[in-house]
Amino acid sequence: MSAHDIDFKIIGDDMQCVEIELDPQEAVIAEAGSLMMKDSDVKMQTIFGDGTGQEDGIFGKLFSAGKRMLTGESLFLTAYTHQGFGKKHVTFAAPYPGKIVPFDLTQYQGKIVCQKDAFLCAAKGVAVGIEFQKRLGVGFFGGEGFIMQKLEGDGMAFIHAGGTIVERTLMPGEKLQVDTGCLVAFTKDVDYNIEFVGGIRNTFFGGEGVFFASLQGPGKVWIQSLPFSRLADKIIASAPRMGGKRKGEGSILGGLGDLLDGDNF
User: Fold this and answer.
1) Does the bond joining 102 to the residue before it have cis omega, within 30 degrees of 0?
2) Where residue 43 sits, what CATH number does that domain have?
3) Into how many domains does the chain fold?
4) Over the stretch 216-239, which tens digit does the pLDDT of each residue have?
5) pTM for this one?
6) Are 167 and 222 within 8 A, CB to CB?
7) Terminal CA-to-CA distance of the chain, rounded, Å?
8) In what side-by-side order are the strands of the sheet with 183-187?
């Protein structure tokens, strides 16, 4: 079954949303919680499975939904179907600042592999599944990169990532090393592995991760400048102490001012 042929418009700059235009009986699937707004003729339906509706029986749907749980996502997807007349719209937004990247899967041999929390929405008929990385090193040291999502089909799919998105085209044999948290997506022909940074000083004092994501062409790679995990770490590190606002906040001395003021004794 071919995916529905949808039109779209990406709105905004650093806090983007995507508006999907639907003809009668066209539908789009999305992760739970990504809806921003919709016209009243666009009806919601919670669905099991990978989004295609082509699984064999209830056990096929349960198996597809169960695999999605391995990526940390919900058992369910939500389908939004235009059940009225004329053209109607439904809009989706991501939960944190960043960019939305549209993919016409027909231009990428019908498949894109992405980080497990990157998927936002797609035309009905696109399959949202999981992609296991088969190498032992990726399995032991790749962290979240061991289990990734795959988007397969012949329709439009949309992913979201933090900060600015950089697209790189790798020539055959060309290799790119990326912080594991910054990797967003890559095409099916890219060879993906995990590499040790190397060197005792680099490992313990470099301030970066112990492993790189290694990507070798040919193919395309999409990289984000601000992974959500990095943003969350900064927020937690800067959070006020229990009991109120930090006195050093906004001052030149910062934490040193708190120390001299006796707050740390």
Assistant:
1) no
2) 3.60.160.10
3) 1
4) 999 999 999 887 766 666 677 777
5) 0.76
6) yes
7) 68
8) 127-132, 147-152, 111-114, 183-187, 219-224, 165-170
